[in-house]
Design a protein that fits this description.
Shape of chain B: globular
Largest interface: A-B, 23 and 26 residues
Structural class of chain A: alpha/beta
Radius of gyration of chain B: 14 Å
Number of helices of chain B: 2
Strand content of chain B: 35-45%
Largest sheet of chain B: 5 strands, antiparallel
Strand order of the largest sheet of chain B: 4-3-2-1-5
Shape of chain A: globular
Strand content of chain A: 5-15%
Oligomer: heterodimer
Strand order of the largest sheet of chain A: 1-4
Number of strands of chain A: 4
Order of helices and strands of chain A: HHHHHEEHHHHEEHH
Chain lengths: 206, 97
């Protein structure tokens, strides 16, 4: 399920060749220009899970910001200097001691790209998309997270015009950490909900 | 708009062909309106280069997992929410609260 194998392309795959051919045709037909393609790449590369981690860490230390993040996530992102412009809504859902959230897009691979950049490969896989809605607890277990039986699992299938991110719970034992240290605990997987932040992430020097 | 939070709804059992945003596993299933997300151009028309207008209301609809899958693995409280356009919903009275 998880894809911790590096995917190094040493030769051009048929898919990459096809994309390059389509891009060349679009440029030739005047639908796209090279600078527009470069702008698109820069836009995506400027976004990463670090943005999500910043939003979460601020919400953990600032209740007013947390309220804003849960009611108007785009405004909260703008407040931290991010550029969440995207036609789709951006909705943050909160994990609590009673409810744990998991995000999936069964129809394609909708993901809050304007904030987090490109989704991980496993998020786009047919296996994750089909199993996350049907057996979410098994999927989380495979990511190393055992959701307690008495915690309700709430799966969000982002089928249309909203993109979702999870606000995980602040792990115990992090009372002395400052904001930037807290942000380091927040993994990309915990923003999707397949796992939760661990206080021990600190020592791994990520 | 037709529905408000708390209303019982059912997803139409339609098998409309082409680009749709209502996944097959929800067709015919009963749930409730969790919230109103907003109104947007209909993506089922946008996909074919049409305007998608007038805008359609989009609802966050909640379901009990046990109502979706006969052999669901977890507790009966587990839920699933999906975003469903108004034209895919009808008033319903089934489903577990």
């Amino acid at each position: 399920m998880s894809d911790h194998h590096p995917h190094e392309e040493t030769t051009t795959s048929p898919y990459a060749a096809r994309i390059k051919a389509i891009e060349a045709l679009l440029v030739e037909k005047g639908v796209l220009t090279e600078p527009e393609v470069q702008d698109g790449i820069s836009y995506m590369e400027a976004r990463s899970p670090a943005n999500g981690a910043k939003l979460v860490a601020r919400a953990w230390i600032d209740d007013e910001f947390k309220t804003l993040l849960l009611s108007d996530a785009k405004a909260a992102a703008s407040e931290l200097g991010m550029e969440p412009e995207h036609p789709a809504e951006f909705i943050v859902v909160e994990n609590t001691p009673l409810v744990h959230n998991l995000i999936v897009c069964t129809l394609c691979s909708c993901y809050p790209r304007a904030i987090l950049g490109r989704p991980p490969d496993w998020y786009k896989s047919f296996e994750y998309r089909s199993r996350a809605v049907r057996e979410p607890r098994s999927v989380m277990r495979e990511f190393g997270f055992e959701p307690p039986e008495d915690v309700e699992i709430l799966v969000h299938d982002s089928t249309a015009d909203a993109r979702y991110m999870v606000l995980p719970m602040r792990p115990p034992g992090t009372e002395d950490l400052v904001e930037v240290e807290l942000a380091r605990l927040v993994t990309r997987d915990s923003l999707v909900g397949v796992s939760v932040p661990q206080a021990s992430e600190m020592t791994r020097g990520t | 708009m037709t529905y408000k939070p708390g209303d019982r709804v059912r997803v139409l059992p339609s098998d409309k062909p082409g680009h749709v945003r209502t996944p097959g596993y929800l067709r015919g299933k009963a749930g409730w309106v969790e919230s109103v997300i907003g109104a947007y151009p209909n993506p089922e028309d946008l996909a074919y280069g049409l305007s998608g207008l007038p805008q359609h209301y989009l609802f966050k609809v909640g379901f009990r997992q046990a109502d979706l899958w006969d052999d669901y693995e977890g507790p009966a409280e587990d839920r699933l929410c999906a975003d469903v356009y108004e034209h895919w919903l009808e008033p319903g009275d089934g489903g577990t609260t």
